[in-house]
Every structure is written in structure tokens, then in C-alpha cells.
Amino acid sequence: MRLIRILGIAVILLSTIENIKSQDKSEEKSFRGKITGNVVDRNSLFALPGATLSLYKYSDSTIQTGAIADRKGNFEIKEIPNGKYSLKATYIGYAQKFVKNIELSRTNSTINLGQIGLSLSLSETDEVNVTAEKPHVEFSAGKKIFNIEKDIVASGGNAIDVLKNIPSVEVDIDNNVSLRGSGSVQFLINGKPSTMLSSGTSALEQIPASMIENIEIITNPTAKFDAEGTAGIININMKKEGNNGINGIAMINAGTYDRYNASLNVNYKLDGLNINAGYDFYGSLWGMDGSSFRRTILEDSTTEMNQDFFHRRRNISHSVKGGIEYNINKNNQLIINASYRGSNADRSGESINISNNILQENTDKSNSKNGEISTSPNIDLSLNYRLTLNKKFHELTFDAFYSTDNDDESTTNHQYFTFPIESYYGQNSIGLGKDKSIILQSDYVLPFRDSTRLEAGIKAIHKIMDSDYQNFTKADTIPDWVLDQSKSNHYIYDENVYSAYLIFSNKVGEFSYSAGVRAEQTITKGEQKTTNNINERNYLDFFPNISFGYKLDINHELQLSYSRRIERPRSRFLNPFVEYMDYYNVRYGNPNLKPQYTNSFELGILQNYSKFSITPSIFYNNTKDVFDRFTVLLPDGKIGMTWENMSSKYSYGLEINFSGDPFAWLRLSLDGSYYKYVVEGIQSYEGQKREDFSWKTRLNATITPMKELNFQITGYYTAPSENIQGKRFSSYGVDFGARYDLHENLTLTFRASDIFHTRTWHSISTGTGFYYDNDIHPLSQYISLGFQYKINQGIKQKQRNGEDSIEDEGMF
Q: Residue 139: its pLDDT value, please?
């Protein structure tokens, strides 16, 4: 009996325990929590109505639910199962922010995150939060900033690939860069000049995309910047680490067409000392296939030539760099940087040429083979000193730059004639170019109040470009290479620009303005050593600049700006020496070429809404004495390319930038421009005028199915356009990229360029006595795979104003 009684009591106890457990599980399953908070502008504390809140599961980063902030910035997310979460707050025009380690339970069912402060993209004091994501486009006074961290389709590429995805920027088949249809662009790296870029945009191919922080487009620069570049300035800002201790980035990438690149950049920071060093390797195979047709008429003779050709160029470059940033004390800072870049290029090409007369009878058949081997070492040195005076923003800076860029090349061209008789003609040229640049400048900023300041500065630029070119010829009757003095040349170009500027800026309420003027004295000397000809110029110019801004409310801002700028002819544009490109084409400069001047006006409005932003702008540019390439038919039947001044050129149009997040997993960026341009009066050929409308658009879509994984598709279309001597046909293409964060510090990237293989470059040129149709297909379709590893990137940075960055808490 006692045993039965004990067993009965045990059964009752076990049943009770199971009932309690079942009840707990049921309550746990049915439990729902709540998260509340308030989203505001970090600086003004204004509410951000319509801000998007996305809640992610902490374990696998899958999105769970979300909410939209009301007109007071308040939000409430209900019916949340217990667990650990992270919250993302986004608002167009602001840096995104994550709030991590949000844990709901029965004892903690309601969590109030308080105020979540988001930083305006254009805020100068907004330091990058480790957990924050920058928007694709930021707008600041007079410039647009394109952050490329999320530009997946450019991963594994170079600076040229990045620029192809920037609105208003266009890159042609030869990687020449233009801005709003003009090639007169000034390039800067970290806001500073570099001789590496002065010799042409081919140097941009040597800059890995992974090391670029952002691209700044400045269409109406202030008087503080050099007036050179009528289209404006493209500033490439490189990544810079700011954490204490050792940190950095290592990257390796491989792709088809022998595209390989690798880089290692490390940084050591301790208190007031910052030391950085890096190595970059880049290798690629560039090329194109194409065909051309040209008709020439000399007196009563008409000749037509069909040409099929291909070109290949293999590039290999190495660069090393290092720098020291030393904060001597709170008022004195010294920065020293040095870099060396060595590149080697091996170019080859071949063409089949068939010429007919007007009766379509063969008159000439030949095969051309050409090649070029070049080496280009480059050195950049810089010294920067900053003295902070008695109050905030009151400072004096001194900068010195020294750069050299040498180019040693050997070019061969073999022409094999098979009809009407077999014969041979060859050229072998050896060229040595030496460019040197010295820049000294000093800038002073005097603040009267927080919003009022006076800026002044002086600058001296000395450039010397020495080009020594020797040409050797060979033919059937000449067994050895013979120096041809008539096709050899030694040209030295010396350019000195001395400048000073003054700027006054102020802000009254919601209205801000800036006005300045820059004076530049230009002294140039072109010395043709071969013929003992000297061309000298000395002229003084003034370049005013003015801008206005008016903040209608927190979401709308008007910007109006004007500037006057100049483009000076490059040395090769002025050198009259005739350079034989091949048997059928030559090029030569124009010593009488004058600089061109542009007056530029722009009006834009920045509009931020809850889920998107849109920035329309209208612009008008008027250029006097504009110069451009001009093609002519020479008396011997060759096509000559030179440079000519035209009377004027003006263009006007509309440009629209749209970006938005219609869903938590989708980000869209759409850009378009529509413009008209008119070119009048080539001074050597009276009466010529050409005008045309054109447009282009670009779409970028980023898909984020989970926090660690991103897909990106980019497409563009450029409509046909006309120029002073012909037209260019439409062009379009689509790129794809993927990015997967394997670990907090390790990222895998994949890129597919021109996935439909549609990129072409088709143009027609016409002139007195000739018609030229050129159709080119570049090797633009390729894939690449890469890895990027961040060293010690988990260390939290501190804000510039001393506040700790937010990671786990909602307060700002």
C-alpha cells in the first residue's frame, strides 16, 4: 500500500511538472515583444519622417520585419518573437546606421532605443561609423561624391572601370575620360595633383579599384582650385585607415584576358603618429578588333580602302608607396608621402589593307604589322605642413610636390605590299620622354564666425616636358635601318603658372554664399630643337567663381553656381613635328593653338524623401576658342590629324540623379542627362557649324537578399551624337557583380563585364576630300574573381569631435 501511495504521488508530481513545462513552452511560443524609438538628424535633432527601419535576425542576418517612422520620427515595431536582433535605420541622403545586440525576452519585452541620430551625407564632421553604410551618392556644396564601396561591378578592376559607372563621366575606346561631353578634365588624387596623371589617363589603369574610397565630381570648382580643366575636376580619394594599432587591406584578383592584380596596404597608428605603406601589382591584356572604310578624293582620283585590324596591349605595373603623418602637437601637423610606380607595356597589332579605284579595281594590297615596347617609371614626393592657429578652422598650410615621369619606348611598323608588286617599307622609332613637375603652394583660412570665413592662397607650378624622338627607315633597296632626320624630332616644352586667390564665404540663416577670384599668370616656351624654332607666350587671366545655397527645409536645398575656367593646349598639341603613325596616317601639332575659356552656370535642387532622393540640375556652358582634334586629307593621300581652334561652343541641358530604396533588399540609382551643343566656325575652315541633341542614361540596381550577400547590375545607354566633322553611333552595355562576406574581415567578389558583348565604338568622319567610317569592338567581355581581407577592421573608430561611435546602443 505504501509503495502504491508513493507511486501515485510521483505520477501526480510528474504530470504537474509536464503541465508547467508545456505552459511555459506555449507562453514562450506565443510571446511577442516590441521595439520603439525616434529617428532624428544627428546635428539639428530634426525628426526624419518616413525613415525606414529594418529588423534583422542576428544569427543569420535574414530580414524579419520593419517599420516606417511617422511625421515626428517615431516608430514602433510590434509582434516580435523573442530572440536577438539588429536594426538598420536608413534615410535618403543620410549614412545608414545599425543598432546591434537587441535582445527580446519575457523579462525584457519592450525596448525603447531612444533617439537614433543619422548623419547627413554632406556633413563635414560626420566620421565613418564601423557599422554604418554610406549612400551611393552624397551631395555637398559644389560637388557630388560617389562612394564606390558598394560598386561591385568595378571590384577587381581599376580607376577606369570605376569612372565608367559614374554619372556624367564617359570613357571612350582609348580610355580617354570626358565629363559632360568635354575631355577638358583636371584629375586630382586625394585633392592633390600628380604627374602620374599629367601624361594621360592611361595611368588611371594602374590604380586598383579596391583602394579607392570615393570619386568627387566638381563641375564648378571654387577659386581655391587651379582654373585648368574647363569641364571641371575629378578627384579620386584613396582609402585611408584611421584605427589605432596595425590595420590594412590585402586584395588579390584574377580574371580572363590575363587580368591579374594584387595589393597590400598597411597602416600603423599610435597617438599622434601614423605610418602607412603599400604595394600594388596590376596586369592586364587590353585589345580591340575592328574594320574601317575610307574614301579619298585627290583632284580627279578617287580611292577607297577597306581595312580589317586588331590591336593588343599587355600592361604590367608595380607600385610602392609610403607615408608618415605626425601630429607634433595639437596645433602642428606634418605629412610626408612618397610613391614609385614602374609600368611596362607591350603592344602589337596587324591590319589587312585593300585599296580600290572608283571602278572597284584593286590598286593596292598590303599587310601592316606594328609593335611597341615601353617602360614608364614615375616618382611622386609630397610634403604637407598644417598650422592650426588660435581658434577652430583658423589655419595656415604649406604644400610642396615633386614628380617625375619618364617614358622610354621603341616602336616598329612593317608594311608588306603584295599588289601590284611585292615590296617592303619599315619604320623603327625610339622615343625618350622626360616630364618633371614642381609645385609649391600655401593656403590661409581666417574664420570670423562659425559660418563666415576668408580664404587666400598662392601657388607656383613649374613643368618641363622633354621629348626626344628618332626615326629609322628601311626598304627593299636599303638592307639596314637608316636614321631619317626628316622624321626625327627633339621638342622641349616649359610651362610656368603663378597664381593667387581670394574667397569669402558666409551663411545667414538658411542662405549661404561664396564668392572668389583667382588670378593666373601663364608663361610657356616651346622649343623645337630640330628646327631651332621657339614659340613663347605670356598672359594673365582672372577666374571668378560664385555659388549660392538655400535650404528650403531639411529635405530640400537649392544650389546655384558660376565659374570661369581655362584649358591650355598640351605640349603635343603644339609641337608641329609630323609623326608617322603608320603608312597611311600621320599626326602633328599646331603651334598657333590658343587656350580655350569656358563660362559655366549650374542650378540644382537636392530633394530628400522618405524612400528616395532626386536631384535635377540644369547647366549652361559657353566656351571661346574651343579646340579639338581635326582630320584633314594631305596632298600625298595620307590622313592627317591635328588640332584647331573653333570660334565658340556652347551647350545646355538637364541632368537628373535619382536614388532610392523601394524595398529593404533593393537599392536603385538612375542617372540621365539630355543636352544640346552647338559648335561654330573652325577658324581655318570658315562657315562650318554643327549642332545636335544627345542624351544618355545609366541604371544601377543592388540586391541584398541577406546582409552578407549583394548582387549588382549596371546598365548604360549613350545615344548617337554629332561633332564638328561627323557623328558617333549609340553605345550600350550591361555589367554584373556579386559580393559575399565570408567573414567579418574576408570578402569574395565576382565580376562579369559586358555580359551581352554589346559595347562597340562606331564613328564616321567627313571633311574636304575624305569620308572615314570606323567600327571598333573592344575586348570588353570578361570575368574576374577576387578576395579582399581587412586587417584589424573591427576596432571602433572615434568621432572627430571625441564621441564614441555607436554600435550597440541607440543613443547618438
A: 67
